[in-house]
Design goal:
8 strands, 13% strand, 3-stranded antiparallel sheet, alpha/beta, single chain
């Protein structure tokens, strides 16, 4: 059976049941009072407004659905459309544009754009644990993309946005962040803040990584200026893993999204980091990746003002 023929993509009640099983694995929890013992389901009434998944708490008498407190809250979009959008965004290696979602889901472009930003927020894990715990190898590098607002176009990279990324070779996880400036101290501080002291650092020849390497268990580098991409002394010393992740990111940003404002770049980074961290190579197929995104919808509600101004 095709993945997209599964009931929860087409039947609203099945969609609510599926989402409830992920968000409430031990049964419904009232968002009003936190009760989980005395909750009953309210049968949809076709003669009135049909509200799938509606429940009532017998302790506080409040009504709620699984949408409350999630990215789905106050959305009039059917849950089936949400699940289709989440699957498309998590299964597409280089992303899906809002225009494509608008055509595929048959919703307005404004709805598709806002929908995509909410899903990106669900993909943001907020994990702060440093990479390289237990002595693992961590590749660190920066890349440039797009155009900073108000910056005059010039030769080199001074007008571009700068991204710093880390990839943990042991777990396969990737973490990226937008750099506020290009100062060596800024890069060194942000890299150090995301590395465990026992990590073994892999970088290129950039001088600012020497400051980072002095704070961890080991530091090895390759010299790209001399066309050295794998160390002649050890095949383990390279930054090819993180360079490969940058290639996927840039192909998606240029070929699918084409343009990204600086105020939204952190959300697109979260999207690409999510798909990279939960790729097939780390044990996740398309379905498991979509479920992982659903696990992140709680507590990340966005309003229309936030995606525009954040």
């Amino acid at each position: 059976m095709s993945v997209l023929s599964r009931p929860y993509f087409h039947d609203e009640q099945a969609a609510f049941t599926f989402v409830e099983g992920i968000i409430w694995p031990k049964g419904p929890i009232c968002p009003h009072c936190g009760c989980s013992d005395r909750i009953t389901a309210i049968t949809p009434n076709p003669a009135k407004r049909v509200r799938f998944g509606l429940k009532k708490c017998r302790d506080c008498l409040g009504q709620f659905t699984v949408r409350m407190g999630t990215i789905f809250e106050e959305s009039k979009l059917p849950m089936t459309k949400w699940l289709q959008a989440i699957f498309l965004m998590t299964a597409s290696k280089k992303g899906v544009s809002a225009h494509q979602l608008h055509r595929t889901l048959e919703v307005t472009y404004k709805t598709a754009w806002f929908l995509a930003h909410r899903i990106r927020e669900a993909m943001r894990d907020g994990e702060l644990a440093p990479f390289g715990g237990g002595g693992g190898f961590v590749e660190v590098d920066e890349t440039f993309i797009g155009h900073r607002k108000g910056a005059p176009t010039r030769q080199g990279f001074g007008h571009k946005m700068m991204v710093l990324s880390l990839v943990d070779r042991d777990t396969g996880a990737k973490r990226s962040m937008v750099l506020p400036d290009y100062k060596p101290q800024t890069i060194a501080d942000m890299a150090s803040a995301n590395l465990a002291r026992e990590a073994v650092l892999m970088t290129d020849e950039a001088g600012h990584y020497k400051r980072v390497g002095a704070k961890v268990a080991g530091h090895y580098s390759v010299n790209h200026r001399k066309e050295e991409y794998v160390s002649r002394e050890s095949p383990l010393v390279h930054t090819n893993t993180i360079e490969g992740s940058f290639a996927i990111f840039k192909r998606g940003m240029r070929g699918v999204y084409q343009h990204c404002g600086e105020q939204h770049l952190h959300r697109y980074l979260a999207e690409f980091d999510f798909r990279y961290s939960y790729r097939v190579g780390t044990g996740f197929d398309d379905t498991h990746r979509a479920v992982k995104a659903l696990e992140g919808v709680v507590g990340k509600r966005l309003t229309y003002r936030q995606p525009s101004d954040a």
